[in-house]
């Protein structure tokens, strides 16, 4: 039989704008392989759960298009892929470039065996990182000039259309059964609430979501900070898994802004958020240790607290601060949290409780269905004060004021806080059901000590920052 065109799937679970898939197709009938390696098993619970949904959606789509599904093999890529190449006679292995450090390490190991028969393709970013450089030829370290430069240059080459026809490779070895894979049993805690709250996965769902969002993007700029409204795109999961490419988002949105002037301002603002994602990835490529060490090296000596009772209370959504607890409960049950609330929750942990941002980062790594190694690390560092920002550590979010401003009728808080003040909502009940034994799952009330704790925390944070500055 003809040798296959071999596609190593890791992210980029899509057919549109997928140069790796197109390159594989040119070489023969498509054999798409997913390698279930130790790094995948080590992913956080929510990202693993969401990854499986992406894989299943892609598999179903591939079966519809070609009659063949995804081959799932267990092992390490440097063992599994060369074996597969030998068995099938594939000329090359094509992969969509996903410049996450663990994946880059895996690519390096495969390259040691296969050499330049491993071919990486773009598609994860709007533009090649080397293309955006400051006047002095350096890397942009501040968002605004980065965004200006990117808008001026525009994304790389046009979006590649999805292939019209795909011939599948039918002589591949037998792999694991995708229907019984169950990568994340740890996500099914409490009653089966996930299916109720989960957003549909897959490329078609991503395109549909983008389309619906753009139809009413006009108020995005004014409403995007309101967790009580459904004002943002909800595309982050799809972008994180590559079910849609950022260039597709950019191209469709730009066309729509021209065709539908009332939505244009909202769409422009939306694209500036997509550029934040891009900025995060460019930073991660330049600074691969962004999830481990402060982006501003002077912060390495900052006296963050590690494990503590306060951290445990934060992880369990028992801080007594309504907006903070509501956000953490939402994330536990759904794997999602509104951006404004993420900032407040992270600020409470790092600025009021003076807890090491890496503890918060790890909790988010485990809990977010839109987990993105670059966005998560950059944003945690940004909130903690050691990340890329013009005025980093003076910003301390006051959760009470944030709640008044962005959740003015307490609708968001009520949704997630059982008995605060009314009867439990479906969401709050789901949270209560999900809590393991030993957690305080009594209806939420604002703890008596919350005000004092907040004032004390803020004072401690400010004093610490003052001391830090005095040392400079
Ligand atoms: P929209 O408002 O519709 O924005 C459109 C897209 O722009 C998003 O889908 C996302 O891809 C990108 N985007 C928006 N805001 C940001 C941002 N601040 N940084 C980078 N990209 C952004 N986002 C993730 O995708 N994964 C993460 O792991 C993640 N961790 C975060 C941790 C913290 C502490 C904070 C404060 C933010 C984090 N974000 C993360 C960014 C942001 O909260 C989410 O991207 C956003 O809430 C997703 O909702 P949306 O798709 O409706 O966003």
Descriptors for this entry?
binds flavin-adenine dinucleotide; Serine Threonine Protein Phosphatase 5, Tetratricopeptide repeat; 21 helices; 51% helix; DNA Cyclobutane Dipyrimidine Photolyase, subunit A, domain 3; 5-stranded parallel beta sheet; Rossmann fold; 472 residues; 3 domains; mainly alpha
For this structure, the CATH topology of the largest domain is: DNA Cyclobutane Dipyrimidine Photolyase, subunit A, domain 3
**Helicity range of the residues?**
40-55%
Distinct small molecules = flavin-adenine dinucleotide
Strand order of the largest sheet: 3-2-1-4-5
Please summarize what this structure is.
This protein has 472 residues and is mainly alpha-helical. 51% of the residues lie in helices and 5% in strands.
Structure explained in plain terms:
There is one protein chain. This protein is mainly α and 472 residues long. It has 3 domains: 1-124, Rossmann fold (3-Layer(aba) Sandwich), CATH 3.40.50; 126-157 and 190-286, Serine Threonine Protein Phosphatase 5, Tetratricopeptide repeat, CATH 1.25.40.80; 297-471, DNA Cyclobutane Dipyrimidine Photolyase, subunit A, domain 3. Helices cover 51% and strands 5% of the residues. The protein has 21 helices and 5 strands. A 5-stranded parallel β-sheet has the order 3-2-1-4-5. Strand 4, helix 5 and strand 5 (118-121) form a beta-alpha-beta unit. The chain is globular. The N and C termini lie far apart (68 Å). The model has no long low-confidence stretch (mean pLDDT 90). It binds flavin-adenine dinucleotide. Flavin-adenine dinucleotide binds at residues 224, 232-236, 239-240, 270, 273-274, 276-277, 280, 339, 342-343, 346, 364, 368, 370-372, 375-376, 379-380, 383.
